[in-house]
């Protein structure tokens, strides 16, 4: 495990009191080179928000076999687009989740784990859960007669939101312990999002779907519990200043 240590970090102004004094004086005398203010920047953003279109759309049903027989037909008195959008959103997140754990496994192989940290098998088990959730959502979307490969608006939004999480996991200079922070972000979202999706499925009268999703929600509760425990162990080890390295395990 790569250790966090004191190094030649020069990002803070305390590194050079003379230069920082000059820099502050300069900033006070010379106005910013770009004109405008926070209020003007906010006004431009508002203007863009008003003038821009939406992020994608939900395509009409691709098949005539599903629950939605025709475009515009309601499910349990509700428009199908919302349910399809949210299913697509969850599918996107579970796909990213699978890749997130794949990246963690690669880090584990490179640097090993730490006392109280995840084993390769632990990471593989969660990776497999996320992949099963992805497949579960794919089937649920297909049963409705919709296309699981379509990028829905919600899928776009969570794809963008989770891009930072994935970036942390694949960044080679960020160690396994630090990467757990990204897993925490993902698993907290996983837990809340499944709960909301279950409520939505029930509102749409999809009781069977809701029952399947409850099983996924139970897995997510375990994922979160495990990630929290690994993070706590790492923090406790770091606080004691103990070496945390274990021998890297090779991929089977
Ligand atoms: Fe998940
Ligand atoms: Fe998860």
Describe this structure in words.
- It is a single chain.
- With 252 residues, the chain is mainly α.
- The chain has a domain at 78-252: Up-down Bundle (Ferritin), CATH 1.20.1260.10.
- It is 65% helix and 0% strand.
- The chain contains eight helices and no strands.
- The chain has helices at 17-29, 38-51, 80-111, 120-144, 153-161, 163-170, 176-203, 207-240.
- α3 (80-111) runs parallel beside α5 (153-161), α3 (80-111) packs antiparallel against α7 (176-203) and α6 (163-170) packs antiparallel against α7.
- The longest helix has 34 residues, at 207-240.
- It is flat.
- It binds fe (ii) ion (FE2) (2 copies).
- One fe (ii) ion binds next to α7 and α8.
- This is Ferritin.
- It comes from Sorangium cellulosum (strain So ce56) (Polyangium cellulosum (strain So ce56)).
- InterPro entries: Ferritin-like, Ferritin-like_SF.
């Amino acid at each position: 495990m790569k250790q966090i240590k004191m190094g030649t970090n020069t990002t803070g102004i305390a590194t050079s009191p003379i230069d920082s004094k000059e820099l502050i004086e300069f900033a006070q005398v010379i106005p910013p080179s770009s004109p405008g203010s926070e209020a003007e920047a906010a006004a431009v953003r508002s203007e863009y928000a008003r003038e821009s279109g939406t992020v994608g759309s939900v395509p009409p049903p691709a098949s005539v076999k599903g629950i939605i027989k025709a475009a515009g037909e309601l499910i349990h008195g509700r428009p199908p687009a919302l349910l399809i959008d949210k299913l697509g959103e969850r599918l996107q997140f579970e796909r990213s989740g699978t890749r997130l754990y794949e990246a963690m496994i690669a880090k584990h192989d490179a640097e090993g784990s730490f006392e109280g940290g995840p084993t390769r098998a632990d990471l593989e088990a969660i990776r497999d859960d996320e992949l099963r959730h992805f497949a579960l959502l794919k089937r649920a979307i297909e049963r409705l007669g919709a296309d699981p490969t379509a990028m829905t608006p919600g899928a776009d939004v969570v794809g963008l939101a989770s891009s930072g999480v994935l970036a942390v996991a694949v960044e080679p200079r960020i160690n396994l312990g630090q990467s757990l922070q990204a897993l925490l972000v993902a698993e907290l979202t996983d837990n809340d999002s499944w709960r909301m999706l279950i409520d939505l499925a029930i509102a749409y009268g999809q009781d069977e779907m809701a029952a399947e999703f409850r099983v996924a929600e139970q897995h997510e509760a375990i994922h979160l519990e495990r990630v929290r425990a690994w993070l706590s162990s790492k923090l406790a080890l770091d606080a004691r200043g103990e070496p945390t390295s274990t021998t890297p395990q090779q991929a089977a």
